[in-house]
Amino acid sequence: MADGAEPANNAFVFIPDADPRLIDQLRDGGMPPGVRYVASVTGSSQVIAVLSYNELTELPAIIRSLSEGDSTAVPLALSQIRRSEYREETAFVRIHTKVDDPETLLAPIREAIGSVEADVVFGDFDILACTVGDSLEDLKTRVIGSLRTINGIGRTETLVVIDYVSLSENAPDGHRGTTK
Known about the structure:
By secondary structure, this protein is α+β, with helices and mostly antiparallel strands.
């Protein structure tokens, strides 16, 4: 990623068998180039990573810098995930839709989660949303419960963040990482 410009593309990698020390290693040793957010999560994956790249050919090396990823989802437009608000609790929701065009669900999903952090993706699900709240109960009732009422959403999988490291200036102290 030459010339210091903001990378043009993003991808999300879900790692099922990550090293349990990965978050601490990245916090202490710095994030590899192209990695801007990594979180240990509950659910079918142990880790989710948000990557940034200019050319698709860069993506395999960025993924290998973390681990061998289980699946990768690529947003159809500039990603909004992990670019805004950080609160006490965070969860990622993988959303499978029952509509021909998942883009039609972005507005109601963004309204339900109270943020723009939802992207239509190429992958084994249709939309990835990042939700934040003041408590797990807040996430469960206010945010995730409201997603399930949206007509056109089929199945969801919620990945609750346990710990994370982020390059965002919005990330709180103790979670803000550096680059290698």
